[in-house]
Amino acid sequence: MRNTARWAATLGLTAATVCGPLAHSALAAPETPAASPASLYAPSALVLTMGHGESAASAGAARAVTLSCAPRPSGTHPAPALACAELRAVGGDPDALAGPGDALCTRQYDPVVVTVDGVWQGKRVAFERTFANECVKNAAESSLFTF
Amino acid sequence: MRNTARWAATLGLTAATVCGPLAHSALAAPETPAASPASLYAPSALVLTMGHGESAASAGAARAVTLSCAPRPSGTHPAPALACAELRAVGGDPDALAGPGDALCTRQYDPVVVTVDGVWQGKRVAFERTFANECVKNAAESSLFTF
Hints:
Oligomer: homodimer
Helix content of chain A: 25-40%
Largest interface: A-B, 35 and 35 residues
């Protein structure tokens, strides 16, 4: 009888030792999904489009990507972290990032129109800019428009 | 010597059997990054916002999420796969998904305004809808607006 009790105690202790950490991790709060803490910070979520033509109204969207900067950079934009950092540096104003860069482009007129819509830190963003050709767009000083 | 040769052959065969599949998987083309094949299909990228007020122009955005449906459902929307499937079923028209659902809501007037902007299969989307209160918004027959 005493032996049985000792065995039971040993088994209990073993179970606690082995299962303790498992139980802990199982009971730990699951990682918060990306979307649910949205109310904890001002949202920054954008959609960027690029189309061939002079204005968004007349041009379809040949390409479109999403860019979310909170809680962390994400989206189908090819460089979300860089694009978010650049936007943060100018207070979320795409206009401040559309200036000409250093690259040399031909002067061929084959206009592309870029739009940025959505929200930056809770404030609505609606931006449209036409570049003379795609080279000029990609030569803008920001990587925001390189998608 | 004959034994050594047999051993070598066996070892070689074993190596080929064990390592063959590994080499194959290592040499297989890496998974295409989400952004680069954008030109292979019509893009579907949206940003959804929700604000307290009667119109998007007057209401800030309390919440905003991104939703991309190509090449695969993604974004900060809490249920991208479901939202994309619902949009696909109605040809990307958010209006068709904003109808009232079954849930019972109070008739309290505390308007919330929802916007959907971006691109659905290359076509631009600009949608705005005001619901009488947040319960009515969440009761819409689609999960698109539940974020």
